[in-house]
Amino acid sequence: MNKLDKDSVIGISALLVHAANIDEIYSDHEKDLVKDFIKSYLKDDNANEILKKAEEIENNSNQLLNYTNIIKENSTEIKADIIEHLWKVIISDNTVDQYESNLMRRVCGLIYFSDKECAEIKLKLINDK
Fold it and tell me: What is residue 122's predicted lDDT score, i.e. its pLDDT?
Protein backbone atom coordinates (compact mmCIF):
# COMPACT_ATOMS: atom_id res chain seq x y z
CA MET A 1 0.00 0.00 0.00
CA ASN A 2 1.40 3.42 -0.80
CA LYS A 3 2.04 5.77 2.05
CA LEU A 4 0.29 9.01 2.79
CA ASP A 5 2.40 11.95 3.92
CA LYS A 6 1.86 13.50 7.33
CA ASP A 7 -0.24 16.43 6.07
CA SER A 8 -2.51 14.04 4.17
CA VAL A 9 -2.95 11.87 7.26
CA ILE A 10 -3.80 14.95 9.35
CA GLY A 11 -6.36 16.09 6.76
CA ILE A 12 -7.96 12.68 6.43
CA SER A 13 -7.97 12.32 10.23
CA ALA A 14 -9.93 15.59 10.35
CA LEU A 15 -12.46 13.99 8.02
CA LEU A 16 -12.66 10.99 10.38
CA VAL A 17 -13.18 13.35 13.33
CA HIS A 18 -15.93 15.03 11.33
CA ALA A 19 -17.59 11.66 10.72
CA ALA A 20 -17.34 10.92 14.44
CA ASN A 21 -18.91 14.28 15.32
CA ILE A 22 -21.87 14.14 12.97
CA ASP A 23 -24.09 12.47 15.57
CA GLU A 24 -22.80 14.97 18.17
CA ILE A 25 -21.29 12.21 20.28
CA TYR A 26 -17.51 12.04 20.00
CA SER A 27 -16.54 9.09 22.15
CA ASP A 28 -13.16 7.89 23.37
CA HIS A 29 -13.73 4.78 21.27
CA GLU A 30 -14.09 6.96 18.16
CA LYS A 31 -10.90 8.84 19.11
CA ASP A 32 -9.12 5.48 19.39
CA LEU A 33 -10.36 4.50 15.92
CA VAL A 34 -8.97 7.73 14.47
CA LYS A 35 -5.67 7.08 16.26
CA ASP A 36 -5.64 3.55 14.77
CA PHE A 37 -5.90 5.15 11.33
CA ILE A 38 -3.07 7.58 12.15
CA LYS A 39 -0.84 4.78 13.46
CA SER A 40 -1.49 2.66 10.38
CA TYR A 41 0.15 5.34 8.21
CA LEU A 42 2.55 7.12 10.56
CA LYS A 43 4.28 4.58 12.75
CA ASP A 44 6.76 6.92 14.42
CA ASP A 45 4.60 9.94 15.05
CA ASN A 46 2.64 10.77 18.16
CA ALA A 47 -0.94 9.81 17.32
CA ASN A 48 -2.35 11.97 20.14
CA GLU A 49 -0.61 15.05 18.75
CA ILE A 50 -1.86 14.37 15.24
CA LEU A 51 -5.38 13.75 16.55
CA LYS A 52 -5.29 17.17 18.29
CA LYS A 53 -4.25 18.86 15.03
CA ALA A 54 -7.01 17.00 13.16
CA GLU A 55 -9.57 18.09 15.78
CA GLU A 56 -8.45 21.74 15.42
CA ILE A 57 -8.81 21.54 11.64
CA GLU A 58 -12.24 19.94 11.98
CA ASN A 59 -13.34 22.68 14.43
CA ASN A 60 -12.19 25.49 12.16
CA SER A 61 -13.10 24.14 8.78
CA ASN A 62 -16.41 24.17 7.04
CA GLN A 63 -14.45 23.23 3.94
CA LEU A 64 -13.77 19.76 5.25
CA LEU A 65 -14.58 18.05 2.00
CA ASN A 66 -11.48 19.74 0.56
CA TYR A 67 -9.65 16.84 2.14
CA THR A 68 -11.30 14.54 -0.33
CA ASN A 69 -8.91 15.98 -2.93
CA ILE A 70 -6.04 14.37 -1.02
CA ILE A 71 -7.83 11.03 -1.07
CA LYS A 72 -8.83 11.32 -4.74
CA GLU A 73 -5.16 11.36 -5.81
CA ASN A 74 -4.46 8.00 -4.18
CA SER A 75 -4.81 4.38 -5.23
CA THR A 76 -8.06 2.46 -5.00
CA GLU A 77 -6.45 0.46 -2.22
CA ILE A 78 -5.85 3.56 -0.09
CA LYS A 79 -9.33 4.89 -0.90
CA ALA A 80 -10.83 1.60 0.27
CA ASP A 81 -8.76 1.75 3.46
CA ILE A 82 -9.93 5.30 4.21
CA ILE A 83 -13.56 4.39 3.50
CA GLU A 84 -13.16 1.43 5.85
CA HIS A 85 -11.82 3.70 8.61
CA LEU A 86 -14.68 6.16 8.07
CA TRP A 87 -17.22 3.34 8.39
CA LYS A 88 -15.48 2.00 11.52
CA VAL A 89 -15.93 5.39 13.15
CA ILE A 90 -19.53 5.75 11.98
CA ILE A 91 -20.73 2.27 12.99
CA SER A 92 -18.81 2.23 16.29
CA ASP A 93 -21.99 3.32 18.11
CA ASN A 94 -24.05 0.65 16.31
CA THR A 95 -26.24 3.13 14.47
CA VAL A 96 -25.95 4.90 11.15
CA ASP A 97 -28.11 7.99 10.78
CA GLN A 98 -29.05 9.78 7.58
CA TYR A 99 -26.34 12.43 8.05
CA GLU A 100 -23.65 9.78 8.37
CA SER A 101 -24.94 7.93 5.30
CA ASN A 102 -25.11 11.21 3.43
CA LEU A 103 -21.49 12.05 4.36
CA MET A 104 -20.32 8.67 3.06
CA ARG A 105 -22.23 9.13 -0.21
CA ARG A 106 -20.71 12.60 -0.68
CA VAL A 107 -17.19 11.44 0.14
CA CYS A 108 -17.44 8.44 -2.20
CA GLY A 109 -18.75 10.68 -4.97
CA LEU A 110 -15.94 13.20 -4.48
CA ILE A 111 -13.17 10.59 -4.48
CA TYR A 112 -14.68 8.53 -7.32
CA PHE A 113 -15.20 5.46 -5.15
CA SER A 114 -18.11 3.23 -6.11
CA ASP A 115 -21.22 3.11 -3.93
CA LYS A 116 -21.25 -0.66 -4.38
CA GLU A 117 -17.74 -1.05 -2.95
CA CYS A 118 -18.59 1.38 -0.17
CA ALA A 119 -21.66 -0.69 0.76
CA GLU A 120 -19.61 -3.91 0.68
CA ILE A 121 -17.05 -2.46 3.10
CA LYS A 122 -19.82 -1.30 5.45
CA LEU A 123 -21.50 -4.72 5.34
CA LYS A 124 -18.26 -6.55 6.00
CA LEU A 125 -17.56 -4.38 9.05
CA ILE A 126 -21.06 -4.82 10.42
CA ASN A 127 -20.84 -8.60 9.94
CA ASP A 128 -17.41 -8.73 11.59
CA LYS A 129 -18.59 -6.91 14.71
Answer: 96
